[in-house]
# Entry
Amino acid sequence: MDTTKIENLNSFQLDVLREIGNIGAGSAATALASMLSDKIMMDVPVLRIINLDEVTSSLGGPENPVVGISLSMSGDVTGLLMFIIEKKFFELLSRSLLNHENQSLENLTEMETSMLMEVGNILAGSYLNALAQMTGLKISLSPPDLCADMAGAVMSLPAAMFGMIGDKALMIQEDFIGEDHITSHLIMVPEIDSLNNILKRLGVA
# Structure
């Protein structure tokens, strides 16, 4: 069976990738707790293979307001990575880190944009560090691009970019529980050669 495509991953390979997701999510929860000076608990992340045209509905529908933070991977692993943060998550971050109340995703301030990009960097780094440590691969991230809008609009450009690599993605949903129950989604689309390289390094090719 061709295991170089995301849709052909078997249950064992997905379990191995899910374990990396667990480690990365644990690191992300620790980083969030440190930033928010609060105890953040994490539910077990849910990893799915998803059609790119189904992502928007998984985010609550095309009119659901979200923040999308996209980064390119380079080095031993190339591809695209995108964090989707729901409005409730943004409100918690703004309230805790910036003392902003009654926040809106429309017309983000420079400070709010900077905060979201930093959070995106930290969350992405948590996952890629876990992947790098378990595989020995060197992975670099580009500076983040940010878009705050309805989910349909946020996903329109990256969906076209993702589509050049393939029509399937790995999506990890993380539920963090602290003062509020907040959810984020990590969408990862490694290029075919990179996915194969990851599986080989993990011994599950």
